[in-house]
């Protein structure tokens, strides 16, 4: 490997020049960010092929237009024009859960003859997905993609997007392969043969110590990729919890409420008042623009520098930035209460994390379930559809998954990324940022809440004054109610005390 450290020109984008790339999962959160990054920062890239499930009534151009309609692409559309972007992308109808990927013979030949780089991002990220569906998509789908990659005549790299949270028995995860929880080939055959109901009945026993089907099936898929490394140039990306953008191309952009964003919105709306969580613990978060930049740098190192010894990459942040669970919630509550209020707040943001389950269950009963029941009754009486009880059912179900991760701790070695920081030049460090320099946590969370307000909740800036007035009203309501409740408790406790005292005299 020969890396010229004196070359201050960008060497990463030119490596992609005229190379054709296939991306699965391009309609997902990470997939869209990767497409945008390649089109904006690597304009001379060859054709980008997107494997997407067929959608009746929509042509390939319409599917592309749906992707490019996302606000994420406004910057690159302004720079290059929508028609140019569409001409550089090709939709391939297919489905990773189907045999042969449900790709037509013509499209398969197109891929085999042209593709140089594959990014396999498609996966179900639902932790409560049924085991059969998770195996079919996350594990068997990866096997099918590997089979396709083996046929590609110009393949320089097959990049599998895994997760740093798939080997949960390892408290310190190293950038190396780990044995799978079972033989992936046997699991695939068993799941193919058995009915879904039968698999559901066996799921708990099959998973063993693994807490959910997501981690289990991603670990199995990793084993398939490792197994194939003798036949194809394959790498594994292990990103941690991928969260909204830090800065590029829109600060705080996201298209979902997974992870911390959901907690911020729930707490900011006054709906989430209690969580069973080690408040001092922390998760490992990675802004999605950091994730896709790292994927580009790793690809350049593997393909351009031919550094094939480094083929497992941890895309993580907690070695540099540790934000506790309590820190996230407290920051979110302060921002929503003082700077960027949300519309339709049900109660003034408050509550706390509980270190024991019984404390949380007690608090949830009084501050989640009773208010939900009362408010839904009022909604029903006024002719509206009750919704809050159902929302808290979904929150409680989400907490079942969250609690496992919030009350355990993992750390990750990222020596390869640290090495890559030493071989990229100043221009590349700016264009493909893979370090935490300049990241301000408070500013970042403000951008996340502002962007969630715009893109998720569809709340425009002109509603902020009204939201701020409503927040002040809810502050008074919160204080008055607490005063009445605590005053009532003190009154009845005092009354009971004096009754007992006089009764004993």
TrEMBL record:
<dbReference type="GO" id="GO:0016020">
    <property type="term" value="C:membrane"/>
</dbReference>
<keyword id="KW-0444">Lipid biosynthesis</keyword>
<keyword id="KW-0443">Lipid metabolism</keyword>
<dbReference type="Pfam" id="PF03015">
    <property type="entry name" value="Sterile"/>
</dbReference>
<feature type="domain" description="Fatty acyl-CoA reductase C-terminal">
    <location>
        <begin position="367"/>
        <end position="459"/>
    </location>
</feature>
<dbReference type="GO" id="GO:0005777">
    <property type="term" value="C:peroxisome"/>
</dbReference>
<keyword id="KW-0560">Oxidoreductase</keyword>
<comment type="similarity">
    <text>Belongs to the fatty acyl-CoA reductase family.</text>
</comment>
<comment type="function">
    <text>Catalyzes the reduction of fatty acyl-CoA to fatty alcohols.</text>
</comment>
<dbReference type="InterPro" id="IPR026055">
    <property type="entry name" value="FAR"/>
</dbReference>
<dbReference type="GO" id="GO:0102965">
    <property type="term" value="F:alcohol-forming long-chain fatty acyl-CoA reductase activity"/>
</dbReference>
<keyword id="KW-0472">Membrane</keyword>
<protein>
    <recommendedName>
        <fullName>Fatty acyl-CoA reductase</fullName>
        <ecNumber>1.2.1.84</ecNumber>
    </recommendedName>
</protein>
<dbReference type="InterPro" id="IPR036291">
    <property type="entry name" value="NAD(P)-bd_dom_sf"/>
</dbReference>
<dbReference type="Pfam" id="PF07993">
    <property type="entry name" value="NAD_binding_4"/>
</dbReference>
<feature type="domain" description="Thioester reductase (TE)">
    <location>
        <begin position="23"/>
        <end position="295"/>
    </location>
</feature>
<feature type="transmembrane region" description="Helical">
    <location>
        <begin position="362"/>
        <end position="384"/>
    </location>
</feature>
<keyword id="KW-1133">Transmembrane helix</keyword>
<dbReference type="GO" id="GO:0080019">
    <property type="term" value="F:alcohol-forming very long-chain fatty acyl-CoA reductase activity"/>
</dbReference>
<dbReference type="InterPro" id="IPR033640">
    <property type="entry name" value="FAR_C"/>
</dbReference>
<feature type="transmembrane region" description="Helical">
    <location>
        <begin position="484"/>
        <end position="503"/>
    </location>
</feature>
<dbReference type="InterPro" id="IPR013120">
    <property type="entry name" value="FAR_NAD-bd"/>
</dbReference>
<keyword id="KW-0521">NADP</keyword>
<dbReference type="GO" id="GO:0035336">
    <property type="term" value="P:long-chain fatty-acyl-CoA metabolic process"/>
</dbReference>
<keyword id="KW-0812">Transmembrane</keyword>
């Amino acid at each position: 490997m020969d890396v010229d450290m004196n070359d201050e020109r960008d060497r990463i984008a030119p490596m992609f020049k005229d190379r054709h790339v296939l991306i699965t999962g391009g309609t997902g959160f990470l997939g869209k960010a990767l497409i945008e990054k390649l089109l904006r920062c690597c304009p001379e890239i060859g054709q980008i092929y997107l494997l997407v499930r067929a959608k009746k009534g929509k042509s390939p151009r319409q599917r592309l237009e749906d992707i490019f309609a996302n606000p994420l692409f406004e910057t690159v559309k302004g720079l290059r024009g929508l028609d140019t972007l569409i001409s550089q992308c090709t939709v391939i109808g297919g489905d990773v859960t189907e045999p042969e990927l449900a790709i037509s013979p013509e499209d398969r030949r197109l891929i085999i003859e042209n593709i140089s780089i594959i990014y396999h991002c498609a996966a179900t990220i639902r932790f409560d997905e049924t085991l059969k569906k998770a195996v079919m998509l996350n594990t068997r789908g990866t096997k099918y993609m590997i089979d396709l990659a083996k046929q590609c005549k110009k393949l320089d790299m097959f990049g599998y997007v895994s997760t740093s949270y798939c080997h949960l028995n390892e408290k310190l995860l190293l950038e190396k392969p780990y044995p799978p929880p079972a033989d992936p080939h046997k699991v695939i055959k068993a799941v193919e043969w058995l009915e879904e109901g039968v698999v559901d009945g066996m799921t708990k026993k099959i998973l063993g110590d693994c807490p959910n089907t997501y981690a289990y099936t991603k670990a199995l898929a990793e084993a398939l990729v490792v197994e194939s490394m003798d036949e194809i140039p394959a790498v594994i990306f292990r990103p941690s919890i991928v969260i909204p953008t830090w800065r590029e191309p829109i600060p705080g952009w996201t298209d979902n409420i997974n992870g911390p964003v959901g907690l911020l919105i729930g707490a900011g709306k006054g709906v989430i008042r209690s969580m069973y969580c080690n408040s001092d613990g922390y998760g490992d978060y990675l802004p999605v623009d950091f994730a896709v930049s790292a994927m580009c740098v790793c690809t350049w190192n593997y393909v351009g520098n031919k550094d094939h010894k480094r083929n497992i990459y941890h895309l993580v942040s907690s070695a540099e930035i540790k934000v506790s669970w309590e820190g996230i919630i407290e920051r979110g509550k302060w921002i929503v209460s003082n700077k960027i209020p949300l519309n339709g707040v049900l109660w003034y943001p408050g509550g706390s994390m509980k270190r024991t389950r019984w404390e949380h269950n007690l608090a949830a009963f009084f501050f989640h379930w009773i208010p939900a029941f009362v408010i839904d009754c009022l909604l029903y009486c006024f002719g509206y559809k009750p919704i809050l009880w159902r929302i808290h059912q979904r929150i409680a179900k989400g907490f079942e998954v969250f609690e496992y991760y919030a009350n355990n701790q993992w750390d990750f070695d990222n020596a390869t990324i640290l090495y890559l920081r030493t071989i990229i030049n100043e221009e590349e460090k700016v264009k493909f940022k893979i370090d935490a320099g300049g990241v301000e946590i408070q500013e970042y969370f403000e951008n996340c809440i502002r962007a969630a307000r715009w893109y998720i909740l569809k709340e425009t800036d002109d509603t902020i004054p009204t939201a701020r007035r409503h927040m002040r009203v809810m502050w008074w309501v919160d204080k008055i109610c607490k005063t009445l409740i605590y005053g009532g408790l003190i009154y009845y406790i005092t009354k009971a005390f004096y009754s007992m005292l006089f009764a004993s005299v």
